[in-house]
UniProtKB/TrEMBL annotation:
InterPro entries assigned to the protein according to its UniProt record, in alphabetical order: Regulatory_HutP (IPR015111), Regulatory_HutP_sf (IPR036482)
Source organism (scientific name): Desulfoscipio geothermicus DSM 3669
Annotated function: Antiterminator that binds to cis-acting regulatory sequences on the mRNA in the presence of histidine, thereby suppressing transcription termination and activating the hut operon for histidine utilization.
Name of the protein in its database record: Hut operon positive regulatory protein
Family stated for the protein in its record: Belongs to the HutP family.
GO molecular function: RNA binding
Length: 139
């Protein structure tokens, strides 16, 4: 197995965020685990401003539930920080609007990436946005 870096982990998080079904999530997780990458995904939705804290919490909970991270302060903080970074990238498009989509989380050794994929709704004029955050923690 070759060494993987932040680009490969980010790619895995993005693919998880773009997965269309639970079956596809499961297939992707099995594919990534063969490469040594742990991954998780979770849905989210609602008013963007009201959802920021909920999205961050859901990311941390999903990462712990799927054993992507350990239940230690540094790992939880890394996922929360990467999620906030990803959210800050989509904020200009999503502020004041309803959003729905998926969060993808991936980890390989000391690399953790979180991708958020949104459909941003305004009447019938849907927009899409994706944000990505990365943190390094001791493995």
């Amino acid at each position: 197995m070759s060494l993987l870096g932040s680009k490969e982990v980010a790619r895995a998080a993005i693919k998880m965020a773009l997965s269309e079904s639970r079956d596809q999530e499961r297939e992707l997780k099995e594919f990534f685990i063969k490469k040594g990458i742990k991954a998780a995904a979770v849905d989210h939705g609602g008013d963007f401003i009201a959802s920021v804290n909920k999205i961050t919490e859901r990311s941390v909970v999903a990462a712990k539930r799927e054993k992507v991270i350990r239940e230690v302060h540094a790992d939880e903080g890394a996922v929360a920080g990467a999620t906030r970074e990803a959210l800050s990238q989509v904020m200009p498009k999503a502020l004041g609007l309803n959003v729905g989509g998926k969060i993808g989380i991936a980890r390989y050794k000391d690399h953790i990436s979180v991708a958020v994929f949104f459909g941003v709704g305004l009447l019938h004029l849907d927009e899409v946005a994706i944000g990505l955050g990365h943190r390094a923690v001791s493995s």
